Amino acid sequence: MSTDIADVAIGRSIRNPVLSGFHPDPSILRVDDDYYLATSTFEWYPGVRVHHSRDLVHWRELGGIITERRLLDLRGCGDSNGIWAPDLTYHDGLFHLVYSDVASFASGYWDAQNFLTTAPTITGPWSDPVRLHSHGFDAALFHDDDGTSWLLAMSADWRPGRDRFGGIEIQQYDPARRQLVGRPRIIFTGTEAGLTEGPHIYRHDGWYWLVTAEGGTSWEHQVTVARSRDLFGPYEVDPAGPLLTSVGRPDLTLQKAGHGSLVRTQRGEWYLAHLVARPYSPLGNCVLGRETALQKVDWSPGEWPSVPGRVPADEIPAPDLPAHPWPDEPATDHFDAAQLGAGWSTLRRPATDDWIDLRSRPSHLRVYGGQSPVGKQTPSLVARPVGAVRCSLETVVEFDPGDHRHLAGIAGYYNTENWHHLYLTRADDGRSVLELLSCDGGHRTAYPQLTVDTEGRLRVGLRVTFDGPVLRFAYDLGDGWQQLPVELDATILSDEHAARIIDGEPAAWGFTGALLGLWVQDLGGDGRYADFDHATYLEH
């Protein structure tokens, strides 16, 4: 056993980020000896990804909670819209999940519908969703010691000239009637950092502790703590400043630190789960998106909670808990199961059998083609987050395109406007060919000089590799791997590149990080499909 593995095995330290790649806005929860992290998923199914741990060191992916349109319909969902900042709590023998479905953010408006669903276990079954309110996003439940439950949320203000982040709102939730009751009230308007959102309340040491995210979710992000003797305030802000932030420290590995939630271990230790990002250069593009990290919190009786140095650390002490590693996930998915594995996501529609078929051909994933890259109702993209600076996805595909409207291959993907795609299609002269197409900010670039003749090849190997700021494609026609002689810009598949501000208004936001995917398009609606024999994801 290597030294690194031994250190983790005995639980000495936690290495950040604990969830790498696209895993933002963590909500952490302990139920008895089990810890759960729920994270945002935006336009991707399954909604609200959940990871499970018993020692805060080792985490395993459980998949997502929202697997059906009954719980969420993302047809037509815009880029980086959809599910924002889920909140996971446990009360009266039920898991409670609150999530915001954000439909727009243009011109100062947020159309954010908040929902609640419950389940007896983390794996369900989850109840039909209850519509709460649309007052703002980042909704969360607080269950008080007296048995009452309260819904918190950022209170949005659409009016020109007003602060769009109007404060933290609270309103009582009646679980028997499954609805909000009483009037909402603002309990906190934030600090000078502004953009106050992501609220959570904790009852501890005779105080109500309000934890919020401030400064926006980029470089100015921070975790703010305020306290009050009364649930409704007034709340006093920690005079020492933010609990955690990376502001002013471009030297730190972990940037954008903010949006935190707290958990107490069985032995009384406190930890903060929060989002971070790792730019490829100082304050540069973050291809990996926003990730989840943990920090040790010192919280003595009568004192404010504190994180050492108030900055995110790459490595922290693990809690005094027995080590509990999980079996390693295999690098290769042979598609032997009846459902997609927990690591896969699908774009804007759940993995239903009308387009995802794991039964017709054993040990193959059959994907029926969907819309074009700009289609937001029925795309056919199966993907997983880029989890390391250097990683790859490799597959073998069988595809019989009828014409130029049929495409199947492998991709590095960010959103409808930013992607790289290597695909099989049919040329005008009838040959099956391999082509490359890129899109940067909605502007497409073709590489006709790189077209590869694949006529007569029933099986084609495809590989996409992220190598820092460079993305490369390779193919195998049965006689060994050949790399396409072009280096593509991987940094266009980043939060920063996707975001656009026009005249002070957000025209586009970037919240997801990059993904590697298997992409099939049937632009003619002809019922074409591709069979993928396997998919291997490796971090180098």
TrEMBL record:
Occurrences of domain Beta-xylosidase C-terminal Concanavalin A-like (ranges): 332-537
Top-level taxon: Bacteria
CDD domains attached to this UniProt entry: GH43_SXA-like
UniProt xrefs under InterPro entries: ConA-like_dom_sf, GH43_C2, Glyco_hydro_43, Glyco_hydro_beta-prop_sf, Glycosyl_Hydrlase_43
Record Pfam families: GH43_C2, Glyco_hydro_43
Keywords: Glycosidase, Hydrolase
Sequence similarity: Belongs to the glycosyl hydrolase 43 family.
Protein name: Xylan 1,4-beta-xylosidase
UniProt organism field: Micromonospora lutea
